[in-house]
Write a structure and sequence with these properties.
Shape: elongated
Strand content: under 5%
Distance between the termini: 50 Å
Length: 335
DNA sequence: AACCGAAGCAACCGCCCACGA
DNA sequence: ATCGTGGGCGGTTGCTTCGGT
């Protein structure tokens, strides 16, 4: 097979930015003759460019149906949703955005959306909440951002809500870590009371006071640097908590990582996925594989989450108080 | 006004696959 | 079955613009 001898072997072909004159030659030729062999096109069109360069210039810039300008919120949403499912399959994502090129989407992702997700505490690669404790530093800001997003009804409210819950989850981990670590100062009684207050035991809520039943928790070595794993919590979350004081109701299935019935997917449970790649239900054979699904997903990863009542939690001042109480933790003490 | 670093983006590079001979 | 070619794709580069000092 081998790599095709492309323009890189053609001596003297021009590289770099295209001039308006070159653009005109290319556009005129394609309008007159249509798309054909890109390799032969430069010579026929009178361009001192390689065919590949002509193709890229045409598909990414000169094509008449190209839509330029700022991406709308709706387009951003589509990109993020599909990136969560397809990964860096920019061309596949581009098919969902008529007029946008894969290159433009890729650049927009790298320069805007990636940073946006990072700013929200979301790993742009896994679309899961970042698992480092530094996230907790920004937890109050996260709450404020989520509240602001709710007030303005912006699209990323669900992401923020989920992220806030993920942060809470990590906060609980930090708390349990602190409570079970000899190096930490003994928590105050107020902190204990606060823990219980955050999660009153009613349907649809994690029974956080179960965390106080620490002997029931099994501490295992960190699954990766900076993370600890609490089998007791994990089992409680993923199995419904038979024998555990924890209930699963307070966290969505997505946050629970859709781990198997055994709860063995420890990483997923410790880092609840914000967006879960849906299995392709269009029969294309992809979904979980490397082949991008070309079909429109049956549902957005966010669909259905709107019904979850997160704002009550976000507005729960007890969380903010808990953060303040958590000051006994060494900020540099990673889990 | 000049300098400098960061950000944005167009374009290029090189690997890969599909397809026809 | 093998090979050559065309073209698609994701990653990277480098130029330009912008904002801060």
């Amino acid at each position: 097979m081998g790599r095709s001898p492309c323009c890189d072997q053609d001596a003297g072909v021009k590289k770099g930015p295209w001039t308006p004159e070159e653009d005109k030659l290319l556009v005129d030729y394609i309008q007159k003759n249509g798309l054909g062999s890109w390799r032969r096109l430069p010579k026929l069109a009178g361009l001192n460019r390689c065919g590949k360069s002509c193709r890229l210039r045409w598909t990414n810039y000169l094509r008449p149906d190209i839509k330029r300008g700022h991406f709308t919120d709706e387009e951003e949403k589509i990109i993020i949703n599909h990136h969560a499912m397809l990964g860096n399959k920019w061309s596949s994502i581009a098919t969902k955005l008529p007029g946008r090129t894969d290159n433009e989407i890729k650049n927009y992702w790298n320069t805007h959306l990636r940073k946006k997700l990072l700013g929200m505490g979301i790993d742009p690669v896994t679309h899961r909440p970042r698992t480092d404790l530094n996230l907790l530093d920004g937890f109050p800001n996260l709450l404020a951002a989520a509240a602001a997003a709710a007030a303005h009804n912006t699209w990323d409210i669900n992401a923020l809500k989920l992220q806030a819950d993920a942060a809470k989850f990590q906060l609980l981990q930090a708390l349990v870590h602190a409570l079970t670590t000899a190096t930490a100062t003994a928590p105050s009684v107020d902190l204990m009371a606060l823990l219980a207050a955050i999660g009153p035991p009613h349907p649809g809520r994690v029974q956080y006071d179960g965390l106080l039943n620490l002997p029931a928790l099994t501490i295992v070595p960190p699954v990766e640097p900076g993370m600890s794993s609490f089998v007791g919590m994990l089992n409680g979350f993923s199995t419904g908590g038979a024998g555990s004081a924890l209930a699963t109701d307070g966290l969505s299935p997505m946050q629970l990582g859709r781990s198997g019935p055994s709860g063995s997917n420890m990483t997923a449970a410790m880092a609840p996925p914000l967006v879960v790649a849906e299995e392709c239900n269009a029969g294309c054979g992809s979904g979980g594989g490397t082949t991008p699904c070309e079909e429109t997903p049956a549902s957005s990863p966010f669909v259905g989450l709107e019904n979850l009542n997160y704002l009550d939690d976000l507005n729960n001042d007890n969380w903010k108080e808990l953060l303040e109480q958590m000051s006994f933790l060494n900020p540099n003490d990673q889990l």
